[in-house]
Amino acid sequence: MKGFLAGRYINQGTYKSFQPEKINRKWHVEDMELQNLLSKADRQLGRLDMYSEYIPNIDLFISMHVAKEATKSSKIEGTQTNIEDVLLDKEDVSVEKRNDWEEVQNYIDALNNAVMSLKDLPFSTRLIKQAHKILLRGVRGEHKQPGEFRKSQNWIGGASLSDAVFIPPVHTSVNELMGDLEKFVHNSEIFLPDLLKIALIHYQFETIHPFLDGNGRVGRLLIPLYLVEKAILKKPVMYLSDYLERNRMLYYDNLSVVREKNNITQWFKFFLVGIIETSKNGIETFDNILKLKKKVELQVQSLGSRAPSALKVIENLYDRPLMGSAKAAEVTGLSLPSVYKLIGDLENLGILKEITGGKRKRIFVFDEYLKLF
Questions:
Q1: What is the CATH number of the domain that holds 354?
Q2: Of 251, 285, 319, at which residue does a domain stop?
Q3: How far from chain centre, in Å, is Cα 18?
Q4: Can you tell me the distance from the alpha carbon of 131 to that of 195, in angstroms, rounded to the nearest whole number?
Q5: What is the DSSP string of 155-166?
Q6: How far is residue 244's CA from residue 252's CA, in Å, rounded to a whole number?
Q7: Most buried by CB count within 10 Å: which residue of 11, 119, 131, 160?
Q8: Residue 367 to residue 83: CA distance in whole angstroms
Q9: In Å, how far are 12, 153, 181, 231, 332 from 8, measured between CA atoms?
Q10: What is the pLDDT of residues 18-62, one digit of tens each?
Q11: CA gap 85, 104 in Å, rounded
């Protein structure tokens, strides 16, 4: 990207903040390697979108994609919850893990709410603030102006401004910079391929760091929101947090290289490799879901008259692959003695696996399905 300037450092007395350049302007892409990666990323994302159209009851499986995304995105911020914990009810989560569990649940709620809101509300600062408010609801950070842009200086890394790794722009410029970002999102006169556009939006958002807390999670949440709003994906089935978590240091380094060396191209390449890799993994997951679904349906036929009830349980497990006997009774309408027998049958078939090891409040997991995520 010839002539790209990320911004400049401004002396604030005892520290220097970074003031990014605005992004709502014309862009020219000349790097042929970037063009090639862009072509591959578009192709893989198109395949993923097409694949998701052929999956029956796709919404059943999206909840698991969202749970995985929430777990991985929160893990980048230091939250220690794994996907099995996320699927438990609050009362089944150990007390020491409950705060982390609530943060991940908030991320799931924020993402689901934002996707639903896209039907009535465009990708905008209003939508971003709404998501942020849900993200910080009742958890660590709840007193850090949820749903509002910051009114003071923040920093990244270090214990204070004096030893910070990066200091975002002063709070008085946040509204103007976020307004510029929103205009860029909807400016149809600027030609920049959508995948580069969202890569740039994510970089700029993380650089502005408009909130006192939760910027990383909101910034990653913007990626699937943009892809759905622009109809690049019909359903929110592509999440980059797993890729970013596995390449965490590269992720931070590539964002820093933009500011320190005005090298946006390297960030674009890293982002597009993530789109390619994540799309391929998504297609493989969907393919494995279809194979598993077919295999399980064949296995269940051996249960004879109990097969329809077993299929009701399994259908519910695709949405949330943990279940207790009370939930199984609710789903099937069977008495508890009949449910215990049905669960025993599903255990014998290797479909369900007991994970609590206790005699009471036993929880069963659809293990093979959970492992796909």
A1: 1.10.10.10
A2: 285
A3: 27
A4: 22
A5: -BSSSSGGG-SB
A6: 9
A7: 131
A8: 12
A9: 12, 17, 18, 35, 62
A10: 999 999 999 988 899 999 999 999 999 999 999 888 887 788 788
A11: 10
SS3 state of residue 228: helix
CB 268 within 8 A of CB 95: no
Instruction: Answer whether residue 1 is part of any domain.
Output: no
Question: Final residue of a domain: which of 260, 285, 310?
Answer: 285
CA distance 313 to 289: 16
The per-residue b/e assignment along 268-284, b for 16 or more CB within 10 angstroms, e otherwise, is bbbbbbbbbbbbeebbe
126 membership: H or E segment, kind and range: helix 125-135
Question: Which tokens hold the place of 275?
Answer: 């789109």
Q: How many whole angstroms separate alpha carbon 227 and alpha carbon 213?
A: 24
List, for residues 235-284, the tens digit of each pLDDT value.
899 999 999 999 999 999 999 999 999 999 999 999 999 999 999 999 99
The angle at the Cα of 286, spanning 284 to 292, to the nearest 5 degrees, equals 100
Q: Per this entry, what is the length of the chain? A: 373
Q: Are residues 221 and 234 located together in one domain of the fold?
A: yes
Q: What is the mean pLDDT of residues 203-215?
A: 97
Element holding 338 (H helix, E strand):
helix 336-348
CA angle 122, 124, 129 (to 5 degrees): 120
Domain count, the chain: 2
Burial (Cβ within 10 Å: 0-12, 13-18, ≥19) of residue 251: buried
Task: State how far the alpha carbon of 162 is from the alpha carbons of 17, 158, 169, 257, 344, in Å.
Answer: 11, 8, 15, 21, 61
With beta carbons less than 8 A apart as the criterion, state whether 5 and 262 touch: yes
Are residues 311 and 275 part of one domain? Answer: no
Segments forming the whole domain that contains residue 316:
290-371
Q: Which residue has the higher pLDDT, 83 or 331?
A: 331
* Cβ atoms of 204 and 271 closer than 8 Å: no
pLDDT digits (tens, 9 = 90+) for 311-355: 999 999 998 899 999 999 999 999 999 999 999 999 999 999 998
Cα 191 from chain centre: 27
What is the per-residue burial (b if ≥16 Cβ within 10 Å, else e) of 149-163?
bbeebbbbeeeeeee
